[in-house]
Design a protein that fits this description.
This protein is of the alpha+beta class and 279 residues long. The protein contains eight helices and eight strands; from the N terminus they run ααβαβββαααββαββα. The protein has a domain of 192 residues. Strand 5 and strand 6 form a beta hairpin.
């Protein structure tokens, strides 16, 4: 398989900008600054800060999945990207999302089987992505157009890179608020996730440093994704009619990863029983 680096720099830049704008840009309130972003990606590292999310685009995804929730607000502190240009076929592209905050509310009467056109348009094959990317005009008019005979190899590279992406969420907060129409008070449930890791199962099976076999003409019928949570806490709040809240209801329930990372102590059973009952 042809490596990524021998290809023209303009093609790498166009592919990076296209994929980021397609998979990330539509979820942001403001359009990505592609010129600055492409320079960061060319060096192998990029960072975006203080991103306000677009609730409408996120809700289209939730509607297509039949999730009975509606996002009202969203924010991200920063997104860090790392692209191993010299070893795209054997090393992982990493994305770290820090400080994701989502506020949502229950949504009723979700029509089953409805699918948002914009979300469906994202579920395209790597071959289609390669064709669309090569249709975009090059950043420099003097650069020759990339011939289409390498389209299949280009699509294989895109498919491999997308399947090797590892995403880590740090300090994520998901808040669900609900106030009944006939009530002056409501309730809010906050889920705090210290760390969430996401990757394709093929990355784990290959050991992380072996090429993943792909077939752009016959994509797999099922793709398995892995999610790993750690440091999950729950917090409930009572909302007043002015939109504020009363004091949180203690204690907070904490979900620890298994096995318990705390050092073993003869007093552990007693401490666990005391922490469970509260003061």
């Amino acid at each position: 398989m042809m490596a990524w680096l021998p290809w023209p720099a303009s093609l790498r830049e166009r592919a990076g900008r296209y994929l980021l704008q397609r998979y990330l840009g539509r979820f942001l309130q403001q359009r990505l600054s592609l010129q600055q972003l492409s320079l960061d990606l060319y060096s192998g590292h990029g960072r975006l800060s203080l991103l306000q999310l677009q609730p409408q685009s996120l809700n289209e995804v939730l509607d297509s999945l039949g999730v009975p929730l509606e996002i009202t607000d969203g924010f991200i502190d920063s997104i860090s990207l790392s692209v191993p240009w010299s070893a795209l076929m054997t090393e992982n592209c990493t994305v770290e999302v820090t400080g994701l905050q989502l506020t949502c509310s229950p949504k009723y009467h979700v029509a089953p089987g409805t699918e948002s056109p914009s979300w469906a348009s994202c579920m395209t094959t790597s071959m289609q992505l390669a064709k669309e990317c090569l249709k975009d005009p090059p950043s420099e008019p003097s650069e020759p157009t990339q011939p289409l005979e390498g389209l299949e190899i280009f699509a294989q590279t895109i498919e491999t890179v997308l399947r090797r992406i590892k995403v880590t969420f740090i300090d994520t907060i998901v808040r669900v608020e609900h106030t009944p129409e006939s009530s002056d008070t409501g309730i809010a449930l906050e889920v705090h996730i210290k760390r969430l890791d996401y990757c394709d199962e093929a990355v784990k099976d290959s050991g992380g440093r072996e090429p993943i076999p792909v077939d752009v003409h016959q994509p797999p019928a099922f793709v398995h994704k892995l999610f790993q949570f750690s440091g999950v806490t729950l917090q409930c709040e009572e909302l007043c009619d002015q939109g504020g809240y009363s004091q949180p209801s203690p204690p907070r329930a904490e979900v620890r990863p298994y096995p318990d990372p705390r050092p073993h102590s003869p007093l552990s059973p007693l401490l666990d029983s005391l922490s469970a009952t509260g003061p």
